[in-house]
Specification:
Helices cover 72% and strands 0% of the residues. The protein is mainly alpha-helical. It is built from 7 helices and no strands.
Length: 152
């Protein structure tokens, strides 16, 4: 199911990207459920775990403001609205998985998957940027809190 989840993350990324683009374009008809269902239907035969994709998309949107607040101190040279839309959504998925899916997805898998998404869909430097931000996020938001520290 691992490769199935990789495709699931691609569909989640596409859905979040389209949703954000349409919201920022003031598209009054934007509906995340419509976007998600359309994208899932395209890959109906290949994605068995549709709940995984739905959980990623809905989960990211539910806590997006919190995730964005966590990204800012980790990437201080890049205000959240200046990070490329594709990179921003990859980071949101990665941080969501690191924090909210830690019991089902190992951190190394989360970071590796995000880097692969950045290589496939981002710019030349996206994978290094995503790797750096998520590595720091893991150390400060996950690892430090599990060791008893009170990091962010």
């Amino acid at each position: 199911m691992a490769s199935n989840r990789h495709l699931g993350r691609i569909v989640a990324l596409q859905s979040l990207y389209e949703y954000e683009f349409r919201v920022q374009s003031a598209d009054a008809s934007v509906d995340i459920d419509e976007i998600l269902n359309r994208n899932l239907n395209r890959y109906e035969a290949a994605i068995e775990d549709k709940a995984f994709v739905t959980t990623l998309v809905k989960g990211v949107l539910e806590v997006q403001a919190d995730i964005d607040e966590k990204i800012q101190p980790i990437a201080p040279d890049w205000p959240i609205d200046q990070i490329a839309r594709i990179d921003r959504n990859i980071l949101r998925i990665g941080i969501y998985e690191l924090i909210h899916q830690a019991d089902t997805v190992p951190p190394k898998v989360v970071i590796n998957e995000a880097v692969e998404l950045a290589k496939a869909f981002g710019s030349d430097n996206s994978s290094k940027f995503v790797n750096g931000v998520l590595g720091t996020a893991f150390r400060t938001l996950v690892e430090d809190t599990t060791n008893g520290s009170t990091a962010v």
